[in-house]
Specification:
This protein is mainly alpha-helical. The chain is built from nine helices and no strands.
């Protein structure tokens, strides 16, 4: 039986808090700026690129590097739906966009991309790391821990997974 001491539990909580902050934080808005979120119904029926784009009520801005990457990856997937790396990278890019915008409607498309990548690349620990990051962002801590443990069976010593497991 594995008995954890108080210092190791405290360390685990601190590391988990740091990971949650890293995965779920968003930059503050300039003073006076108001946010608008797209409808959850619209995001469920639109592409990840549309969901990651700015609100139509504002003047269009140039694409951010993350949005440009999302568009490139979406085009790659449209050209070859069996490109597991493109699905993985799209899921990770959408997680980055969530951090940039704090838009929870992007969790669905990110999860779909990562689950597809998981089917296409079952031995890729980065896919599992992305799924774990998504679970942390959704505050699904028990699931994130299980995903970290699964990642460690694929890649023992994988530092990011070790941080969640600690």
């Amino acid at each position: 039986m594995n008995v954890r001491t108080r210092p190791s539990i405290l360390l685990a909580l601190v590391l988990l808090a740091l990971l949650v902050a890293a995965c779920g934080g968003a930059p503050p808005l300039p003073s006076g700026e108001v946010t608008t979120s797209p409808s959850p119904v619209a995001s469920a029926t639109s592409s990840p690129v549309a969901a990651a784009s700015p609100s139509p009520s504002r003047a269009p801005l140039p694409l951010s590097p993350t949005q440009a990457l999302i568009e490139q990856l979406t085009a790659r997937i449209e050209a070859d739906g069996s490109d597991g790396a493109a699905h993985r990278d799209l899921g990770l890019a959408l997680l980055q966009r969530i951090r940039e915008t704090a838009d929870p409607s992007l969790y669905g498309p990110a999860f779909a991309a990562l689950e597809t990548a998981r089917k296409l690349l079952p031995e890729d620990p980065v896919v599992l790391l992305g799924i774990g990051g998504l679970q942390l962002g959704r505050h699904e801590f028990a699931e994130a821990l299980a995903t970290a443990e699964e990642t460690l069976t694929l890649a023992p010593g994988f530092a990011s997974a070790l941080a969640v497991q600690a």
